[in-house]
Write a structure and sequence with these properties.
The complex is a heterotrimer.
Chain A: H1 12-44, H2 58-85, H3 88-120, H4 128-149, H5 153-186, H6 200-232, H7 237-240
Chain B: H1 2-17, H2 20-40, H3 44-67, H4 72-76, H5 79-85, H6 90-119, H7 124-151, H8 158-185, H9 191-220
Chain C: H1 6-11, H2 16-59
The chains are: A mainly alpha, B mainly alpha, C mainly alpha.
């Protein structure tokens, strides 16, 4: 069996090409999945016995929450690759992931608030998951602020990598401490998760929307990384010869 | 080891000659503790309830104030590069810096807290647990904060950036630290909270110096 | 199909503000993100073209 040359795509030039080919079909796939998910969630799934039609927010809230956490793990993963293998692409991928992750974290908080208001009467409840999500949002903002503040790209990559790793290691500790804090102070837990006995269609709707978010993330990160590559590698010959910069040239 | 001690002694001596930093931390802590009752009213039950949180947040923010300058002075006069180039493992030197920071900024808070707790009408037991929780918790703050200080070395807007990076990581310490005193007040006993704080101290004590050394290398290379 | 009419769909059992507020803002912000990424790329390309033109001018057709 032929060994896949992963390291082949670790070079900015080859990654640029790969990303250029992949992002558009992925974006279309994300759109299709989102439409399918919205269809199942809003047209097929039944109303909830207790929450009526209002529960349908979970078809957005749960996928964006999942993605905000998965993206942070991905950032930490690429952070490890960046520090251990000193790979430039890993650093760029981490930085490309951060804005999308931060956005998903914000949307998780926004949709959580809009769900909480009609259901529990308050725009914000200090339940363990929402509070942890808020802290995750701050971790993202910290990462973005730090990497933006550092001029040297290599230092920015490596500092960001360390922040992502330290943050990822701390997220379980933070979550545990917030959960502890919450149960001590509140007694009965106010949970925004659904009960186990969920209709099949509801699960399908959430799954499709989660997939849509994931594919969208891959697409936009690939697209954004291309811009990062252009900025970082601007002195390279291959950049100067790109068709985007030489409109007259025929390949 | 001797390098560790000499660095620790040097930092303490330097701080003694320029006590403004230590005084800033202490002053801030006292001011926070004094302002809160003025803001929420003199009702003793309310103050007793708020005290653990207020004093812990005050201690946390006071520690943050001094973290900025953990490596700043050494970075300016080139001592930090010397430390990097010297034969002594950087991790060991970082331990010395963190220890100095705690002695100068954490320990005063631990000693002051019971006095300030009296302002909030805390019982004797509660004062004891408060001091103990701060004793265990403030070194954790120094350890975690040092990583942030190393990462933001020399950056403009460093203070705010440092706070942003480090405050999410402080949350567990805050929760268990203040929670220990509150658990005591609720009759549940502070043992569990203090044990978890100890665990956090062990974890951060083991890993933070190494992570901080890596951060220094990243900042200085 | 779950809904008797389109107006019932938009009404969402009284939860219209919350449901459509969530869905709407989510799609809007994600769309904004995509637009922003595209704008970033166009600005990068424009900047690179300007740099290229400046270098060509400097080196007068010689090696960059």
């Amino acid at each position: 069996m032929r060994r896949i040359a992963w390291t082949h795509y670790a070079a900015p030039q080859t990654f640029y090409g790969l990303a250029g080919v992949c992002w558009k079909p992925l974006a279309l796939l994300a759109l299709a999945l989102a439409l399918a998910g919205m269809w199942v969630g809003f047209m097929v799934a039944p109303a909830d016995a207790q929450q009526g039609e209002g529960y349908r927010i979970i078809f957005v809230h749960v996928p964006v929450s999942w993605m905000s956490m998965i993206i942070y793990l991905a950032m930490a993963f690429w952070g490890v690759v960046c520090l251990v293998f000193r790979a430039r692409m890993a650093g760029m991928l981490s930085q490309a992931l951060a804005p999308t992750g931060a956005l998903f974290a914000f949307l998780s908080l926004w949709t959580g608030a809009l769900w909480g208001k009609p259901m529990w009467g308050a725009w914000w409840v200090w339940d363990a998951r929402l509070t942890s999500e808020l802290i995750l949002f701050f971790l993202y903002i910290g990462f973005i602020a730090l990497t933006s503040a550092i001029q040297d790209p290599r230092r920015a990559d490596r500092a960001g990598a360390l922040v992502a790793i330290v943050g990822a290691v701390n997220v379980p500790i933070i979550y545990f401490s917030v959960k502890w804090w919450n149960t001590l102070h509140q007694g009965a837990s106010v949970s925004l998760t659904r009960s186990p006995s969920m209709a099949q269609t509801m699960l399908w709707g959430m799954l499709l929307m989660a997939l849509a978010c994931w594919v969208y993330t891959v697409a936009i990160v690939l697209y954004r990384t291309r811009s990062l590559i252009l900025q970082r590698e601007r002195h390279a010959d291959w950049v100067a010869q790109l068709p985007e910069l030489n409109p007259g040239l025929r390949p | 080891m001797s390098a560790l001690w000499s660095l620790l002694r040097r930092d303490l001596l330097l701080a003694l000659r320029r006590p403004s930093e230590v005084l800033t931390v202490v002053f801030f802590f006292v001011v926070v503790a004094a302002l809160f009752p003025l803001a929420v009213g003199p009702e003793r039950a309310t103050l007793r309830m708020l005290a653990p949180g207020v004093l812990w947040v005050g201690a946390l923010l006071a520690s943050l104030l001094a973290l900025n300058r953990l490596f700043e002075a050494d970075h300016h006069d080139g001592t930090l590069e010397q430390m990097l180039l010297s034969g002594t493992p950087l991790t060991l030197l970082v331990v010395a810096k963190i220890a100095a920071h705690w002695v100068l900024c954490g320990l005063p808070l631990v000693l002051l807290a019971p006095l300030l707790g009296v302002l909030f009408d805390l019982s004797g037991d509660a004062l004891g647990v408060l001091a103990l929780s701060l004793l265990i918790g403030t070194p954790v703050l120094s350890c975690i904060g040092a990583i942030g200080a190393a990462l933001t070395l020399g950056l403009r807007g460093g203070g705010v950036l440092l706070a942003l990076l480090v405050l999410p990581l402080f949350v567990p310490v805050l929760v268990f630290g203040a929670g220990a005193v509150e658990a005591l007040a609720a009759g549940l006993g502070s043992g569990a909270h203090l044990s978890i704080l100890m665990a956090l101290l062990l974890l951060s004590g083991l890993f933070s110096p190494w992570a901080c050394a890596q951060a220094l290398r990243i900042a200085l290379e | 199909m779950r809904w008797e009419s389109w107006s019932a769909f938009w009404h969402m059992g009284g939860y219209a503000v919350y449901v459509w507020g969530s869905v709407g803002v989510s799609f809007a912000l994600l769309g904004l993100e995509a637009w922003w990424a595209r704008r970033e790329r166009e600005r990068t390309l424009a900047w690179l073209r300007a740099e290229q033109a400046a270098h060509a001018h400097d080196s007068l057709g010689g090696q960059p």
